[in-house]
Amino acid sequence: MKRFESSLIKASLSILRNHALILFVLISVIYMLNGFELPAVENNILIGFLVLYVIAIYTYIGITNNDFIITDNALEVVGKVPLFKRRRRFLRQHIGLVLFRHDWTDTIGEGMKPRIFRLVVKEISQLLFPFDYKWIEITTNHSFRFYCFGLEYNYFDNKGPLFEDLFKTLQAKDLNVKWTIAAVNKTEFPENFGKLEENQSHKYFSKP
Questions:
Q1: Whole-angstrom distance, CA of residue 173 vs CA of residue 196
Q2: Which CATH class is domain 41-179?
Q3: Any transmembrane segments, and where (predicted)?
């Protein structure tokens, strides 16, 4: 049995960094438009906002983080966050495809014109979604998508657990596993995967 555990701390820090940047930009704009003064905010409104924000972040973490347990005859997906605990087991013989969200593409706003509009959409999306947006889709007689924000890609010398190692482990079990782009190209695991990671680590956000 092999287990790939999602890091809740890393997933939380990822989204908090994005939101802190958004908050900084908004406060800066309000500060300049308000004559270089911050408007007064009642304490009960501020406390209410913080409570709602904490609930939203907790819900987000619970939904988007899953552990994966691989045995000889099954793949289990486990949610471990209280109130969002769940366990789904897929027997090996029932799995038709395990599709991994391709990790080095940059497809935000693909096809949008003019290009300046695509650039604006891309920059806003990168603030709203985590830097390491990723998911796994398991297909039996239905398709089930599980988000994996607490699993890291193999970049910047991350120690893991690694998203790519999960792919390789499932592939070693003779399951049909593909990346989204590779699936279109009818290939499996690109031989130059590591080189592409190194050269394009700045493109880790891609279209949901």
A1: 25
A2: mainly beta
A3: 12-33, 45-63
CA 35 to CA 100: how far, in whole Å?
A: 49
Per-residue burial over 139-150, b if 16 or more Cβ lie within 10 Å, else e, is beeeeeebbbbb
Residue entry with tokens 């889709």: 137
Backbone dihedral angles phi then psi of residue 28, each to the nearest 5 degrees: -65, -45
Q: In the structure encoding, which two tokens stand for residue 80, read together?
A: 């471990």
Handedness of CA 53, 56, 60, 62 (dihedral sign): positive
Q: What confidence tier does 204 reach under pLDDT thresholds 50, 70, 90? A: very low
CB 102 within 8 A of CB 182: yes
Taking the model in full, what pTM does it have?
0.74
Q: Mind listing the pLDDT tens digit for each residue in 101-142? A: 875 445 566 677 787 887 787 777 766 666 567 899 999 999
> What is the per-residue pLDDT across 11-63, written as a single tens digit (0 to 9) for each?
888 788 878 888 898 899 999 998 888 888 899 999 999 999 999 999 989 99
DSSP string, 8-59: HHHHHHHHHHHHHHHHHHHHHHHHHHTTS-PPP--HHHHHHHHHHHHHHHHH
What per-residue confidence (pLDDT) applies to 109?
66
